[in-house]
Amino acid sequence: MLRTLPQHQSSSSSATNGRKKIRLSGNPRPYSTGVATLDDFSAPSEDSGPAMVLITVGILPKVFDSSDYNDPVDPSPRYSWKNGEVEFVERRLQTANLVFSVEVNPTGPILELIDTAFVEHCSKQNINFLSPTPASANAQLFMTPNNLGWMLAGPRGRSGNRTWVEDPKCLTQFTFTVSALRASPYNNTPNYLGEGIFIFIVPRLRNLFGPIDCLFDPPTRRPDHVLTHKCFARRVLHPILASLSDEANPTCGSSCIRTDAGLVSALASTSAMQEHIDLTCPLPSIDSDDSDDDVHSRKFPEVEVLIDQLIAEGLPPLEPAPRSGQILTRAAHRRQWQEENARPSTIPSVASFVACPLLLSLMDSASVSVKPRSFIPGGPIDLTLRALPGAGANSLSAWQNHMAEIHGPSTDEVLILTAASVDAGARALITYCIWLQSVRQPPGVKLKEVLQEQFPTPRPTLVGPYTDVALFGLRVHIGPGFGKGPRAEVLARAVAIVMADAIYWTDCDKYKTLRLHPSLSPVPRRSSFLKAVGLIFLLHFLHVGAPIPASPFMFSALFNGRQTACRFDLDFLTRFISRDSLAYIKKFHSTAADKPLYTSQDEDCAEYQYLLNIPGFDPSLISPTRSEEEHEGICTSIISFITFGAMDIQCRPEFLAITDGFNVAIEPFGEYDQVHHVLEWLNGPQWFETPCRELIISMYDVGIKAVSDVLSRIIFSETNGESDPWNENAETIGLIRQFLTHYLTGQGHPYIPGRVLEALGIDDRNPHDPLVRVRLFMAVITGSVNLPVEPVWALKVNVIHDWNEDFPRGQDFGPEAKASFQSCFKTVSITNNASLRRMLLSEMPLEGFDTKFGQWFHGQALSSRESYTAA
After folding, report:
1. If I label 390, which of 275, 330, 357, 610 is the partner at 20 to 30 A Cα–Cα?
2. One domain for residues 469 and 561
3. Both 16 and 114 in a single domain?
4. Where among 658, 692, 726 does a domain terminate?
């Protein structure tokens, strides 16, 4: 990124001028990483010589697309130059006396070599890695970058011990330039760390590499040289590049930077890197302040002017990538550059992967080892399937029926997965899991071992490919450290949540949101969390097929509801909500239950006004002293509104992904004039008649689609079966099944065909619906008019034999004993006595006619439904 070379400014000067900070583009980081204000930017003094160019080399492997977060409203363009053009750009920027940053993206074993070289260099320079806990700062533990969340290891102070800085956010008050440190007094900021070599390495995202900024200042440094952390990069990377370069191994000092070819050119021309270089250029507004002429003694050219000059001097014109209104990822730049240069890359790109749900067959099998061999964006996935010792010859037969087969050496079967052999429903989730294995797991780890790591014991029961895709995708995408891992019943629970009758939604701005009223009901209803999260996971993991950046809040709400929200990691919130909201959350949460949350209800009371702006929240009803449960519920509700409501998160990429994915899911079911928010579809009972429910039923329905689906799940049992004077109990049960089948397959109402079914609460839009009686029957059994969609369910019909009476005389309709229905257990009890047997033997079921048994059974169902309250 282009910026002027900073010199030291006192912390008071930086704070009082209040100029806008420059936004540093790049991957998201959990902490602020030394953003300097424009007041820190000044021209070099006459005594210090000409300006110098700071080249920051970032070692960044590929980051999964959805992990790249760039503010969609950030107007900064991104320019990229390739190989030979970089040296020209470097020289031109040096002439312009500007500081810029270049990011090099190596892949594969290069990262391991960099780790080794980095450790060796630090060892020679007496630089110690410290454990990422302050308590062990004096232990001087030597760790590799792969195992360390990188922090700041300061120089040795007067006491001889290195200074440990736990939170990099406190480093934003000064810039990391050796000249600024040396120019300031020893006992003042920023030189309180003392003289000597120091390293600043930002914390890494998801255990991946972050940019390496290492500053050194050898005694021989001359004013016209670039800052000598460039020397460090050459010293560290040179052992890797030595075989590809004719240059001798430079020594640490001024000689290593007095070369015609700069470090950037050396890296870009190295075949080991095989990557282009991005030059990220924000557009700072560098103006002149008449009251501060010593800081802005001369104007520096704007980025756009500099780009025009570069093009005029021979650089091919480059169009800046559009940044307004969309998320720009490094992967998109890489793919565009690869298409222009027709050179494949070995960096995996999940967006262009194909996935095969047949990998699910390996999840429960220990006979096959899966190991990815190479990934080419847009191309096939090259997997090696190796039959383990003792496995049968048919271990891979399921694969050979679906994919092209290429015989490899020994017992290997190399299978090329193409789009034609992929189930569209699975999408890229399984592929992403395999890619995750390739970058995070040691070689040779079987896929089943990875699954055993991810899932708890016992493993979830397989009921179909979507179940495993959703479970596995849910676990790996949320990542280690977030939540407690998925549970086997996640989909069954999510389906039950979505199909629940309860409504917990309210109007919020332009869409529906959770109806949480902490002032009226201090502890929010858990079902409101579960309903929303269940629907979101279903839509994305079952239908859209693309993983979303699922937040820990969503995951914890799905499994733990309100109990987890107050203990929820606030570091996550710092990336998604405003600082003011975070400050209020922390303040409310730290307030004791016997202390008031606000001091007054006046307009100048910021706490009261903040609570007042939360939709559905009436802070005047909050008592000054609260019980622990009430206090926890209030804090939970505040967090819920802010993270899942309309206050801070509605414009974030995560929230937009949910909305966009929902609209993609409902697109096949019709044209819509407006964009629907995912929560709008849960407003009222009408939701069950929307395409959203049809979508879920059509994609994930192992429930009732025909009468046979009910009959196949009926399990008959007997009570008092030994009492059988005519030895005809078995025949009676057969007749009950026959008459029950005849009743369920009939159309319309058993009394008057086409009659409105008041007990069902539905009209007769389709009086010939073959499932109309099934709906009534299952409504009584399940307590809901919606047909069951649980993965596993069964209906138990218990026949109670009672032969204590003789055949009745003069009775025309049914036995005196009523049928009983128990919805909680999906059971129905029918008493088999002389009256029932006479009714079964009095007629034969005829097509188009209702039997007496059917009329009696229907009346039993209606009477039970009218007096039944759903549990």
Report:
1. 357
2. no
3. yes
4. 692
- 50 contacts 223 by C-beta, under 8 angstroms: yes
CA 301 to chain centre: 41
Whether residues 464 and 531 share a domain: the answer is: no
Question: What's the pLDDT at 866?
Answer: 54
Q: How many other C-beta atoms can be found within 10 angstroms of the C-beta atom of residue 620?
A: 10
* Residue burial 566-581, b: 16+ Cβ < 10 Å; e: rest: bebeeeebeebbeeeb
Question: Directed axis angle between helix 852-866 and helix 772-782, to 10°?
Answer: 50
C-alpha span between 372 and 375 (Å, rounded): 8
Q: What does the pLDDT look like over 774-833, one tens digit per residue?
A: 877 777 776 555 555 443 456 788 888 876 655 555 544 456 677 877 655 567 888 888
Which single residue is written with the structure tokens 């570069």? 310
Q: What CA–CA distance (Å, rounded) separates 692 from 535? A: 10
Residue 641 located in a structural domain: yes
Asked whether residue 99 falls in the same domain as residue 70, the answer is yes
- 507 shares a domain with 544: yes
Whole-angstrom CA distances from 860 to 100, 211, 830 are 81, 73, 10
Dig out the tokens for 755 from the structure. Answer: 């009659």
Q: What angle do CA 456, 458, 463 make, to 5 degrees?
A: 105
Q: How far is CA 578 from the centre of its chain?
A: 20
The reply to whether 336 falls in a domain is: no
Answer whether 167's CB lies under 8 Å from 200's CB: no
Spell out, as residue ranges, where the chain has pLDDT lower than 70.
Answer: 1-579, 582, 614-617, 629-630, 632-633, 635-705, 721-726, 748-749, 751-769, 782-794, 803-816, 822-826, 865-871
Residue 716: give its domain's CATH number.
3.30.2410.10
Q: Tokens for 120?
A: 């060796």
What is the rounded CA–CA span in Å between residue 58 and residue 101?
Answer: 8
Q: Does residue 208 lie within any of the structural domains?
A: yes
- Same domain for 504 and 610: yes
DSSP 8-state code for residue 540: I
Q: How far apart are CA 299 and CA 301, in angstroms?
A: 7
β-pair partners for 104: 59, 277
Q: Where are the alpha helices (DSSP H) in 221-295?
A: 229-241, 263-268
CA distance linking residue 387 with residue 404, whole number of Å? 18
382 touches 372 (CB < 8 A): yes
Residues 687 and 708 in one domain: no
Residue 734 falls in which region: left (phi positive, over 0), alpha (psi -120 to 50) or beta: alpha
d(CA 42, CA 295): 5
Please tell me the total count of domains within the chain.
4
Q: Write the single-letter amino acid at 465.
A: P
Under 8 Å between Cβ of 288 and 297? no
DSSP state, residue 723? -
The Cα–Cα gap between 865 and 568 comes to 43
Q: State the DSSP code for 505.
A: E
pLDDT of residue 784: 53
Give the DSSP H or E segment for 375. Answer: strand 368-375
Does residue 417 sit within a domain?
yes
Q: Give the pLDDT score at 123.
A: 58
Taking a C-beta distance cutoff of 8 angstroms, is the pair 264, 55 a contact? Answer: yes
Q: How far is CA 62 from CA 59, 103, 201, in A?
A: 10, 12, 18
User: What DSSP state is assigned to residue 325?
Assistant: T
As beta bridge partners, residue 279 has: 79, 102
Q: Which residues pair with 469 in a beta bridge?
A: none
Domain that residue 471 falls in: 350-477
End-to-end CA distance of the chain: 62
Residues 415 and 532 in one domain: no
pLDDT on residue 315: 44
C-alpha dihedral sign at 600, 603, 604, 608: positive
Output the six-digit token pair for 767: 């009086």
Given 3-state DSSP classes, what are the helix, strand and coil percentages for the chain, each rounded to the nearest 5? 40, 10, 50
In terms of Cβ atoms closer than 10 Å to its own Cβ (0-12, 13-18, 19+), residue 156 is middle
